[in-house]
Structures
1.
Amino acid sequence: MATLSLAASSAARRPALLPPRLLAARAMASSLFGHVEPAPKDPILGVTEAFLADPSPDKVNVGVGAYRDDNGQPVVLSCVREAERRILGNLNMEYLPMGGSIKMIEESLKLAYGEDSGFIKDKRIAAVQALSDTGACRLFADFQKRFLPDSQIYISTPTWSNHHNIWRDAQVPQKTFTYYHPESRGLDFSGLMNDIKNAPDGSFFLLHACAHNPTGVDPTEEQWREISHQFKVKKHFPFFDMAYQGFASGDPERDAKAIRIFLEDGHQIGCAQSYAKNMGLYGQRAGCLSILCEDEMQAVAVKSQLQQIARPMYSNPPVHGALVVSIILNDPELKGLWLKEVKGMADRIIGMRKALKENLEKLGSPLSWDHITNQIGMFCYSGMTPEQVDRLTNEYHIYMTRNGRISMAGVTTGNVAYLANAIHEVTKPN
Ligand code: PLA
């Protein structure tokens, strides 16, 4: 366990290179904003920018985790199209309340906490609609800073890069905890348990509910039970980032298992939910933040404070995605169609994992690629080095994050052989 190194935060402030033409212009200008340096590129979204700028017909984008069909095209689910048909010409576009759509929140809580959850019946959950998962995390981080100003957040090594930005901007100090075991390409369970034990009592931990990003490595059910037990002993607070419910196993109920275990054990929890991936509503920014409180009175107070944080930032969340989500989840037929479509997406990704591994083996790669099929969710944490990734990009026009993460959602029947061949070329021993 370590305090987040300064390198990560100072990297965020390091200026990106400016073209000479602009450098000269800047040297001459002494204006109000003359000291503003260009921000470095985002390690994930910057990959998309580079991909778009590449004219090569061979280019492949396996950077950002955005689902594509087997022709490499973005997908709008049929259940979403049907919900949009019902909205069109019928529903108004009035402001939502500060806390967002009550219907959408109700449906989101059922997905995360369970259809018949006693916590929902007892009104113990403070919940607001959020600007997708990122917005839910940020609201929570701001809430944490405002009401527990001396607390810290423990974040797994590695994690989704934006987690660090979110808690940094909310000015919550960060610590890291052991998670991944590079040699086995699996979970470092004993390291993880040690760090949980060694953290001061009552610490905040950010946990990925399923389909850990970027590693694709989740604890087993038994391991989750042990983690939950140790959290109880230490009185830690688990905050679950559930950006991929349904994308790990194909079944949203199964993917909520970690959360359900913690609930059974009587924890108070926090949870960020997103419909970006599992409903394909990426750009709609539809999500939910919930905090399980001790009783209804506490939940009312917490919700009112979450709204108070939202009001000066964006006033109230967007309405269209909230309507789509609540229409789908409220209608048994549409919900059934959604469940089928989520499973379809998860299955296609699982199929591509197999295909990538088989192609690498067919090429005679002497390395083990078992982790491609052992890992789950959207990503394969390949084990490739930043230099190998650079070769993939420069020589093969394959775009991915430099930590070696492959978005399996961008792999298709059409590009898997090309991808496997390029990976083989840059990883084969000399
Ligand atoms: N949490 C985790 C663990 C994520 O992987 C992502 C998205 C989010 C939150 C944010 O989801 P949102 O769009 O609902 O706010 N990660 C993506 C995209 C898919 C990104 O970086 O924004 C990724 O490629 O890692």
Note: The longest strand covers residues 125-131.
2.
Amino acid sequence: MITHLLSAADLDAATATQVLDTAREMAGLADREVKKLPTLRGRTVVNLFYEDSTRTRTSFEVAAKRLSADVINFSAKGSSVSKGESLKDTALTLQAMGADAVVIRHMASGAPHRLARWIDGSVINAGDGTHEHPTQALLDAYTMRSRLGRLAGLQVVIVGDVLHSRVARSNVHLLHTLGAKVTLVAPPTLLPVGVGSWPAAVSYDLDSALSDADVVMMLRVQRERLAGGSVTARDTFFPSDREYSRRYGLDDARLRRMPAHAIVMHPGPMNRGVEITAEVADSTRSTIVEQVGNGVSVRMAVLYLMLGGL
Ligand code: CP
């Protein structure tokens, strides 16, 4: 197993499959009365979050506790970061308290890579800027495999704000490694420069991509990253929420045009009524809540394999 998990591109097919297989074993624990393993007793996991999170932070906490690790939850809000303390000094302080692994979310792309050079323990990227979110890609792959039985050959359509999406980038890397075919669908303004070199097809037309899809993964329109979120700046990416929904939103009519077996995914948090309607988000075809539950099993697997010395 790797020392750090900074990018989904760091995972070869064998390692990624080992994580998914281990996560399946971990999922069995959720059905037991005592949902704990002693594996990481005496080890310390630090959740170092500089950016808001609901799913990732709590699922890493649950995962570490289910493996009997001690958990320190550090949020930049309310810490000495507000007094100007740097990431390096914060990290060295936490290391001095005996951190064996640091799970970091940061608004700056590349922050986890810097951290990995400063501290002795393992670093896990829980989302850095617009760069990567590898454990999200792992839990998404786990969800696809458990719903559809395989990953190789699956047609995965990823739709929306690819420009700002660390989830899209990590999914493209991981799904390519595991043999799935990815198509990115977005307005030209929400595709990054150089997307043509990614191992994925690119389309501007959602309707034409739906009929062959096994998976349709909707991305959140990242209002906070659209040039500071001002309405005027947002207008430079697309004319209005209504226009965006009309061209790139997943509604009931589009859901009915997908193959009967195809699933709908979203990493959360969602903008209901913008990239996805409430009816689709809450439909039986949606795996959105299931993804959150799978996130605990996948993060248990990552911690177990990285810290358990396996
Ligand atoms: N999917 C995801 O990263 O959600 P949070 O921002 O709530 O962690």
Note: Residues 201 and 257 are 20 Å apart (CA to CA).
3.
Amino acid sequence: MRDLVQYSIVELAALYRARETTVREVVQAYLDTISAREPRIRAFLQVFSDTALDEAAKLDGKGYDGRALFGVPIAIKDNLCTRGIPTTCASKILEGYRPPYNATVIERLKAAGAVIIGKTNLDEFAMGSSCENSAFQVTRNPWNEAYAPGGSSGGSAAAVAAGMALAALGSDTGGSIRQPASLCGVVGLKGTYGRVSRYGLVAFASSLDQIGPFARDVRDCAAVMEAIAGHDERDATTIPEPSPDLRSDLEKGFDGLRVAVPADFEKWEMDEAVHGITVQTIEDLVKNGTADTGVCLPGMEVSIASYYILANAEASSNLARYDGVKYGLRSSSDSLIDMYERTRGDGFGEEVKRRILLGTYVLSSGYYDAYYAKAQQVKALICAQFGEVFKNYDLILLPTSPTPAFKLGERLDDPIAMYLSDIFTTPANIAGLPAVSVPAGVSPAGLPVGMQLIAGWRQEAKLLRGAYGLERMYRFRERFVRDSHEQRGRRAGG
Ligand code: GLN
């Protein structure tokens, strides 16, 4: 019996076209995996068994029509609005909230033929790096259940890694797609700021937030990105051009591309396994003339500090709308002011409160110039430095996360340690650049390690060519994922 959850998007399309399987069978296979694994992994806040099967039956009724994501089961981070369906942001404050509209990305996935299989867990309002800030449940890393899946899109990453969805959407404000992708051994992509419409994404830090895909390999990731990207008149910050072609040139890999490696990457603290894989990658790329070490990227150290000022400042403003009047939870009280205070006191978790306080502080008169204005200046410098590097190079190589997955609970009492998870991911958000994490290897403890590429503004096609080049170098799925496509192919081929 074929294991239907093993097929990639391209392979599935071939099966559908040849009528060798049905969307119902595929969706059922994913639901079966969810029944088997979800009780321990807890990646989903909701699973849409019935509606997904209904949708599958409809697609089967019409037959394969060549749409890019026809019959592809996809999981959605629960900070993306789904019409009539609870959208919680893993927060008590949105209790009972059902958006009256779909996010643009949901509409686009549906238009491409995808089947939405469930909504995934996250750190409350996407604030965190481990999924432990969810008000509802802790998601476990499918590679080892004692470990965190990363965050904030940890549910989406875990769902894809555990074979509970073929692809997923997450959001990335400071690394929340790439870091959990790295920790769960899947591909995670954040496009250029403005590449994907944020309409219907519950805002955390609007100048940094971007929606993007998780998938098992680079080609699948590109297919989902093509489906969701492109100008949207409902989000004025979207780039006014159609979704780019990200797949035609993938096979070219690194051909003709120049990769910059920051000169001082050695000085940043990182786990030995991450260090080892990074050094090996650099050596391999230098050997074939692709990479150049010694490129100056001096903004790295300050990016994390400025990120936590800018992100929290915007969050404190964006989250002001949860006042018990318009959405979700309302705590009872005799007076209006008291009602606001109780609702926000009861509804927000500790980390969200910490960020609102920090954000309000850095924006307050007397501190604004020292913190917020300074962080904006640093942002301008970081953008300029990236601009210099991309005059001579196509891509920048960095680890995604300084460590593989950490144990659940390990960083809960130490927000600074948790924030430092984002040291390598925040620069791309600050500069609005596209970046991807590709699974590269496995630590001695058996946990995945991802490598990151960053590209220039609007250069997703080059970015994914590089990612594809890395994927071919690492052969991660073949080497480390049981029942990978190749192994299954060999078995089937006899
Ligand atoms: N971990 C980072 C934070 O807590 C990034 C979050 C994100 O990208 N949504 O802010």
Note: The CA atoms of residues 159 and 165 lie 6 Å apart.
4.
Amino acid sequence: MSLVPLRVLLDHAAENDYGVAAFNVNNMEQIQAIMEAADETDAPVIIQASRGARAYSQDAYLRHLMLAAVELYPHIPVCMHQDHGNSVATCLSAIENGFTSVMMDGSLKEDGKTPADYQYNARVTAEVVRLAHLRGVSVEGELGCLGSLATGHGEKEDGHGAEGKLSKEQLLTDPDEAEQFVAETGVDALAVAIGTSHGAYKFDRPPTGEVLAMDRIEEIHRRLPNCHLVMHGSSSVPQELQDVINRYGGRIKPTWGVPVEEIQRGIRHGVRKINVDTDNRLAITGAIRKVFAEHPEKFDPRDYLKPARAAMKEVCRQRMIAFGQAGHASQLRQAVV
Ligand code: G3H
Ligand code: 13P
Ligand code: ZN
């Protein structure tokens, strides 16, 4: 089976009331970890690459690694998605490189840090939708800026995110605007801002509704019941993954992520794509640190990359089960073939 557009996956997820994790990748081991977990759980998957990931891995490597994934696991429907595209040109180059879905993140200007106004966002997103749909590629848009409702700051941990202090209006997707945006742009999926941010440092205590506005998702879903919603910054930052890193010489400060139960609540209210990167980064780093600490004599990269890959696979497996995508690969494949 070749790579499938995001829309196909999310339509099936909506019809069958489940969510699909979108895992970020930068290298072969991460792709292998996701595919092994998908194979084990019979889950359709979304594999996504940020602009930074594409620069790091190079498009040609990434393209061929994805072809390998499809060849090795023909029974698993896979979508290849551009995460946080910053411009029409970025989205077009992703399409040229075989991506079957692109995110046009027009919530920020092309520099990836200046909050954009509604008109700019709607215009640039509609243009990407027009060009992508001509080629059978799906489009995710974003309305509202990711960032903390407690501090008003976007995150800069991974280089992409709003700079300066943001107002509550900027940090929460407006339901009226969401209706207008989806109608004007024709996006296949809409990423919403509800107080989450990228990286490990999302909340300084277990989040309540004050800082994680799940009710906003419920309201937007009421207004747009047929629109597939996307949650970014949705790593759960589990304590046990933090503990492994800290036990072996790392320094992760106390922090909380988005609880899996809150994501499951989102899935009951129209969330179909859930972006997870940080949890896998934590798992990989913890596993590598453990090998380095316990076996300082080792220097074959396979000695630490294998446990790293296994640790990421376990996170992916757990999320695939928790989000409900497990068990749906064969069913979806029969529906699209
Ligand atoms: O967009 C957020 C993802 O975690 C990707 O991060 O830009 O460091 O690759 P990155
Ligand atoms: P996390 O940093 O919470 O994993 O979020 C990833 C993300 O939203 C990628 O777009
Ligand atoms: Zn994101």
Note: The CA atoms of residues 288 and 305 lie 7 Å apart.
